[in-house]
Amino acid sequence: PKLRQITLFLMIVWACCCFTYYGLVFVYPIALEQRYAMELENQYFAVFLAAAAEVPGVLLGMLIIDIEGVGRRRSILAFLLAGAFAALIVPFFSDSTQFVAANMVLKTLVNTPFCILYVFAAELFPTSVRAPGVAATTTVQWLSNMLVAALFPVLAAALGMRTVLSGFALVCVLAWLVVLACVPETKGLAL
């Protein structure tokens, strides 16, 4: 039962992280073009800035997961909640520069729990089933990636940026609830 709970938790949270992270990857250029009528060269630079914003998130994630009293679970919880809040406010920036800056923050916030999950997944499974457990849960991640690639450009066009980003916020909250309810801390525990 415990392994099933861990596996199900990881599958749900991987899927949620994929929906928010890759959904944002696909929706962001559409918003730059349609909402802000940004020239192609400026779109490339804005996408580059959003990608560069992931680096501080990865570094911050690597640092805080080992801080006493923080760990993996609290780190993921904090970033998911902050990502949900950011996803709700990003669409309200009407100026393209503000939108790009806010999106950089959002990209950092949704990328960090995604990265921490790689560490967390390896620590949650016992050594005897670690490889197949991580493989099964990351398979769900990749299947989610394919689904996002097919759905999100269509959803963004049909529903608009606010609705899609509100959906990202909802998915972050769902992942937050699953982590809160189902996941033990692994920092400092023997593998």
What descriptive keywords fit this protein?
single chain, 191 residues, mainly alpha, 7 helices, 0% strand, globular
Q: What is the gist of this entry?
A:
With 191 residues, the protein is an all-alpha fold.
Explain the overall architecture.
- The structure is a single chain.
- This protein is mainly alpha-helical.
- Helix content is 82%, strand content 0%.
- It contains seven helices and no strands.
- It has helices spanning 2-34, 40-52, 54-64, 71-89, 96-124, 130-159, 161-182.
- It starts with a helix and ends in a 9-residue tail after the last helix.
* Beta-strand fraction estimate: under 5%
> Mean pLDDT score, rounded?
88
Strand and helix order: HHHHHHH
Biggest sheet layout: none
Helix-strand category: mainly alpha
Topology record:
Layout: H1 2-34, H2 40-52, H3 54-64, H4 71-89, H5 96-124, H6 130-159, H7 161-182
Helix pairs in contact: 1-2, 1-5, 1-6, 1-7, 2-5, 3-5, 4-5, 4-7, 5-6, 6-7
